[in-house]
Design goal:
Structural class: mainly beta
Strand content: over 45%
Radius of gyration: 23 Å
Largest sheet: 14 strands, antiparallel
Number of domains: 1
CATH topology: Lipovitellin-phosvitin complex, beta-sheet shell regions
CATH class: Mainly Beta
Helix content: under 10%
Shape: globular
Number of helices: 2
CATH architecture: Roll
């Protein structure tokens, strides 16, 4: 009798292991040679900053453009992706900052043209600027998932984005959690969330900077595992970052003056694959 019970337990365990193995998947990016992946990008929301004793300045931001990602080939196992922004229209407080929608060939002056070296998991190994722009766009690309070797529903992993420059100041390192939620309508669904408390101190040229704040962002990403491409991503980037600069007091040796600054971003974003 004990032998039969033991066999039954082994059979049940084998079944559970088989199901677990069947549900584990591997996701990889695929960029066909000399073929464009085209994404429609829409961003809207508010940005604000205040400095020292000045009143806070708030801006409405609205941007729409397409991103072309052209694979020039594979070198040492890395895709060589030329990224170009076209058909851009950017408004700040309803005033047109840039509009290239009337041209088929004009490049955005706001978003740089880049050469990205990307592996099949989505990690960007190197970036080269082919044409400069006003916005440091690479960190936004780094928000998209770098896949682990295998995924099962509920799998969670962390990605960090190094500090980057924004027109109103430097944003410190950001941290995002990614959760694989399984398949939905023939797409792999990944949730991106952050509830990061920001706390950082640095010194540069005699000036101490204490940075505090919160990153409370979230989003959803759909990935076509057969095509090897992200098909849609949407969500909200929400940052509230406070800076306290301690600068030497020119009138009192050994004393420092506190000089505060604050940056606020609340931006809704959407990336959709169109071609």
């Amino acid at each position: 009798m004990k032998i039969f019970i033991s066999l039954a337990v082994l059979i049940l365990l084998s079944g559970f292991i088989a199901v677990a193995q069947e549900t584990a998947i591997e996701l990889n990016y695929k960029f066909p040679d000399l073929e464009n992946l085209v994404y429609q990008v829409d961003i809207n929301g508010t940005a604000g900053w205040s400095s020292f004793d000045e009143k806070p300045m708030n801006f409405k931001v609205k941007a729409s453009f397409i991103i072309e990602m052209l694979n020039l080939g594979v070198v040492d196992g890395l895709y060589q992706i030329k990224m170009t922004a076209r058909k851009s229209k950017i408004l700040v407080n309803d005033e047109v900052f840039e509009d290239t929608t009337g041209s088929e060939t004009a490049l955005s002056t706001f978003i740089p043209q880049l050469l990205l070296q990307i592996d099949k998991k989505g990690k960007i190994h190197k970036t080269t600027t082919l044409k400069t722009g006003m916005l440091d766009f690479v960190p936004f690309l780094s928000m998209f998932p770098i896949f682990p070797d295998s995924l099962t529903p509920g799998k969670r992993w962390i990605q960090k984005i190094e500090s980057f420059n924004f027109p109103s100041g430097k944003i410190p390192q950001l941290e995002f959690a990614y959760i694989y939620e399984g398949r939905s309508k023939n797409q792999e669904k990944i949730r991106m969330v952050s509830n990061q408390v920001i706390k950082h101190t640095s010194k540069e040229k005699g000036t101490e900077v204490k940075i505090t704040g919160r990153n409370s962002s979230d989003g959803e990403i759909l990935f076509d595992s057969n095509r090897g491409a992200m098909t849609k991503a949407n969500g909200k980037l929400s940052l509230d970052v406070n800076y306290m600069f301690q600068v030497p007091d020119p009138d009192r040796k050994g004393k420092f003056l506190p000089m505060p600054m604050r940056i606020m971003l609340n931006l809704n974003f959407s990336f959709s694959l169109t071609g």
